[in-house]
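Hey,
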Amino acid sequence: MPHAKTSYVCLPCRASYKQPYPGAHDSDRVCPRCAGALVHVGSAFAAPKRRDTAAWRTLSVLLHAGVRFHKSCCGGPGYRPRTLREVRERMAYARAGGEPFARVLVRRDL
């Protein structure tokens, strides 16, 4: 039986790759297109279409905030904003309330 795989993305190329889980002796993964660093996003990740630049911008904000797409006990990664408008609303809420940005991004309700 093959080993389980997880998703990695290259933000500049807007590409997603399934690769084996990182092991103890694995080095950093590199993009086969640009040789840039791949970001480990988790096994519950569904990549947007390459031409959907707004979705990739939203994904970039999530990844830079430390949000990943790992499966939870209930099956999925939980809530993640899908549009830049949702991200902006959550940024404003985080600034007003003083709550950490990464925590506000994954909350279902504001």
